[in-house]
């Protein structure tokens, strides 16, 4: 049985091994999805907000099965990157490459301005992010926390501290996603 939702934020820094205590706190996908549903509905706003959130649920289930990535992990990266907003604005990385879509993945152009959201478009955005994350997981021997650092910034700082600002990305990224996996939301 999965642990219950815990909405408290536990700040964590240090190497990947210092994050391992979060692993036993990971909630079920359905609990986390239901816990974050109101945030996703609010982020999607428009007339098709219910469809958008339904598409996200379907995509996560399908793509987790395709990639072997935990459903809860995919959901929490989506919440961290876009709050589940299917039309989140595409941003650009330091090299000027688009990082768009629900998982704000390099090389993905999101759905900003798309009038009608489709299951296929949501699948495409999540699949691209999931494949990128899967590569990070593989390169880091399945360690979720090291993979998250690389997903966000492209590398781990020489110090090995996953919160080191020298990693380029958001210093609290790994701590934020680790906390989302047990139910924290901002």
Key terms:
single chain; 186 residues; mainly alpha; three-stranded antiparallel β-sheet; 6 helices; 3 strands; globular
Q: Could you characterize what this model shows?
A:
- The chain is mostly helical.
- It is 46% helix and 4% strand.
- The protein has 6 helices and 3 strands.
- Strands 1-2-3 form a 3-stranded antiparallel beta sheet.
- Strand 2 and strand 3 (105-106) form a beta hairpin.
- Helix 3 packs across helix 6.
- It is globular, with a radius of gyration of 15 Å.
- The model has no long low-confidence stretch (mean pLDDT 95).
C-alpha Rg, in Å?
15 Å
Which residues sit in consecutive blocks of at least 5 with pLDDT less than 50?
Answer: none
Q: Mean pLDDT, rounded to whole units?
A: 95
Annotation field: number of helices: 6
Shape: globular
Distance between the termini: 26 Å
Total strand segments: 3
Helix-strand pattern = HHHEEEHHH
Beta-strand percent range: under 5%
What strand line-up does the widest sheet have? 1-2-3
Helix content: 40-55%
Structural class: mainly alpha
How many strands, what sense, and barrel or not for the largest sheet?
3 strands, antiparallel
Task: Briefly say what this structure is.
The protein has 186 residues and is mainly α. The protein has six helices and three strands.
What is the secondary structure topology, with strand pairs?
Elements lengths: L28 H16 L4 H19 L3 H12 L8 E2 L5 E3 L4 E2 L12 H21 L4 H10 L19 H8 L6
Antiparallel strand pairs: 1-2, 2-3
């Amino acid at each position: 049985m999965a642990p219950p939702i815990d909405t408290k934020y536990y700040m964590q820094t240090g190497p990947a091994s210092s994050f391992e205590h979060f692993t036993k706190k990971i909630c079920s996908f359905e609990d986390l999805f239901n816990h974050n549903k109101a945030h996703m509905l609010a982020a999607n706003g428009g007339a098709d907000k219910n469809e958008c959130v339904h598409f996200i649920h379907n995509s996560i289930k399908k793509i987790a099965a395709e990639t072997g990535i935990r459903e809860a992990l995919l959901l929490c990266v989506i919440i961290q990157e876009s709050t589940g907003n299917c039309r989140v604005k595409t941003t650009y990385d330091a090299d000027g490459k688009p990082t768009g879509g629900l998982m704000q993945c390099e090389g993905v152009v999101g759905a900003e301005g798309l009038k009608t959201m489709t299951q296929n478009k949501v699948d495409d955005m999540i699949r691209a992010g999931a494949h990128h994350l899967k590569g990070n997981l593989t390169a880091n021997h399945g360690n979720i926390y090291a993979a998250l650092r690389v997903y966000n910034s492209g590398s781990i700082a020489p110090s090995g501290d996953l919160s080191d600002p020298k990693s380029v990305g958001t210093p609290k990224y790994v701590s934020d996603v680790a906390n989302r996996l047990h139910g924290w939301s901002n």
